[in-house]
Amino acid sequence: MFDNFLIRRDSLKNDYQGGVATGFQLAVRHANYRGVFLSLHNGYYIAVDGEEFPREVQTFEINGQSPRSFEELTTAVWEHWDYDDEAILHVAKPGGLAPGDHEIAFQQSVLAAYGYLPTDEEWVKHPPVPGHGEGSDKTPDIVTYRLPLTDNQE
Amino acid sequence: MTIKRGVSLYSYQQTQFFKRLDLEGQLREISENLGGADGVELLDEMSLHYPEPPAEFDRQWFGWMERYGLVPVTMDVFHDVLQFRDHVMTYHESAERLIHDIKLAKRLGFKNVRTLATTPVEIMVEALPVAEELDIRLGKEIHQPITLDGQYVTEIVEHVRNTGTEHLGIVPDFGIFAFRPTEVLLDWYVRHGAQQATCDLVVELCLETHYGQGNALSAIDMSRHTAGNIRSGFTRFLKTGEAEPDVAPAFALMKQLVDDNVPHHSDIDYTVMAEALLFSRTKPEELKELLPLIVSIHGKFLNMSEIPGRPGHYQDISFDYEGPIRALKEAGYDGYINSEYEGQRYWQDRTEADLADEVDQVRRHQEMLRRLIDAPLDPPAAA
Questions:
Q1: Please, what's the b/e burial string for B312-343 (b: 16 or more CB within 10 A of its CB; e: otherwise)?
Q2: What is the pLDDT of residues A14-25, one digit of tens each?
Q3: Structural domain includes residue A151
Q4: How far apart are CA A90 and CA A14, in angstroms?
Q5: Is A154 domain-assigned?
Q6: What's the domain count of chain A?
Q7: CATH architecture, range B4-177+280-374
Q8: Sign of torsion over alpha carbons A89, A93, A95, A101
C-alpha cells in the first residue's frame, strides 16, 4: 500500500553534527491504513545506490522526541505512532550522501498483524531482519525511489 | 423499518493519508453528498489519537455528530499480539486491550465494536461482561474467504444460544459475496508482469464456479484462514514447496492450472491464480437465519463502474449485491450497511495523478445501495 508515497519526495537530506555530515534522513509514513503501537515498528530495509544500511545504524524520530534506535523502540509499548503522522528515519553514514539524485530501495517492517500467527514466538526471540517481506504484508515488494538530495546545511 | 446506510471511514484512508480530507471533512462528506446516509463507522487506530484521544476531543466529536446529523454506529478495533515485544500477548492481555477499546467506543457514543475475524472467541467472551454493562454489541468480522457456515460463526452462534447474551454477534463483510477477482487488481497484476491469459483463466474459473458450471473449487475450504494469511502462505509454498496440510492441495492445483494453460508464465502468474482461493462462495439466504446476530454490515467494494446503458447507475462487477440485499430485506434487517471501499490500494503503484477517487467511489456505492434498498421486493410467484 502507498508503494510510491511512503517516502516524502523532497525529504532526503544529510544530517550534520558540528558542520560535519554524519548521515542522512528521510520522512516516512505508514505502509498501512492505520497507526500502530510504536513498539511494533521493526525498522527498514534501506539501500542507497546499492549500499545497504542495517537496522543497527537507523534511528527513528517521532512524537516530538529525539531519534531513538529500534532496540529502544521495543520498549515504547504504550506509545502510538498515529496514522496521520510523518516520522523521520535517520541513517548513520559518515560523510553523508553526495549531492544529486540517489536510488533508494526501501521496505518498512511493522510486526502488526491480524491476530495470532505461527511466527509470533519466533519473532519475539528473533525479530525478522527487514527486507524479506516479514512485517510488510501490505507492501510485500521492495520499492525503489529516485530522490534528489536536498542539502540542509546552514 | 428499512436498511440504514452509513460509511466506514476506512473508505477514505488514502484521502486522509494525503491530507485532502481530515476527520471533520470526511464526516461532512457523508452528511452532504450521500443522499441521506447517516451512519459512521471508523477504525480507532486510523481516525483517532489512540489509545486515548484528548479530553477536549469528545466535545468536538459530539458537536460534529449533531451539526452533520450523523450517528456513531460501529468502531473497528485491532489485535496486535506482539505489542509487548518480550512475549506474545496472552488471551487475558488481549481481552484487556479489547475492554479498553469497548470503553473508548462507549465514550464516543458508538453502539458496536467490531473485532477482527481472527480474534479468538474466548477473548471476546472474557470482554463480554464489560460490553453488556456498557450496552455495546461485540461483532466478529466475517470476511472472505471465511464463511457464514464455518467455525468462526458457529462458535458465536453456540455461545449466544447457551447464554442468551444480546451483546455478541457478527459483522458480515460483503466480500463473502464476491465471486471473482476485481478488474482493478488484475490490471495491477498485469502492470507487475502477469500474463493477461492468467487473468482470463482465473476469471473463467471463478465465473464457472459462481454460476454452478464447474466444481474445481468446490472441495476447497479456506474458511478458517484470512486472505492475508493465504496470500503469504502461498508465497511460502512457491518458495519452499511447503504449506499447511489443509491448504497444500489447493495451492498445488492453482500452480498446476497455470503450468498447464499459460505459456511463458512466471511466479506472479501463480499468485494471480491463487486469487481464486479467496472467495467464500456464500449464499445470500444464509444471512437470514443469522439475522439476530448481525451487529452491522461492511458494504465492501473494490471498483464501482457505470452500468452499461444506465447513466448514473453503478455496480461492482466482482460482487453480488442484489441477492444479499434482497435476502436482508425479506428477513427484515433494519441495521446499517456501511460502505467500505478497499480498491484504492490497486492504484497506488503509479503516480499521484493516477490515484483512485475515494470520495467519488463511495458516492457511486451509495447510489447503488440506495437503489437496491428502495427497490420493491418481487411479489411471491403465483402458485
A1: eebbbebbbbeebbbbbbebebebbbbbbbbb
A2: 999 999 999 999
A3: no
A4: 9
A5: no
A6: 1
A7: Alpha-Beta Barrel (3.20)
A8: negative
Q: A74, B85: Cβ pair inside 8 Å? A: yes
ipTM of this model? 0.95
Ordered by start, the domain boundaries in chain B are: 4-177+280-374, 183-278
pLDDT digits (tens, 9 = 90+) for B27-41: 999 999 999 999 999
Q: Cell digits for A127?
A: 525479530
Question: What does the pLDDT look like over A102-135, one tens digit per residue?
Answer: 999 999 999 988 889 889 999 999 999 999 888 8
Range(s) of the domain holding residue A38 = 3-146
A153 lies in a domain?
Answer: no
Rounded CA-CA distance B200/B194 in Å is: 11
**Using one digit for the tens of pLDDT, what is the confidence trace for B72-111?**
999 999 999 999 999 999 999 999 999 999 999 999 999 9
B-chain residues within 8 Å CB-CB of A116? 81, 88, 118, 120
Q: How many Cα atoms within 13 Å fall on the side-chain side of residue B44?
A: 30
Catalytic residue among B49, B79, B143, B159: B143
Q: A75-84, B75-84, B185-194, B370-379: which has the minimum mean pLDDT?
A: B370-379
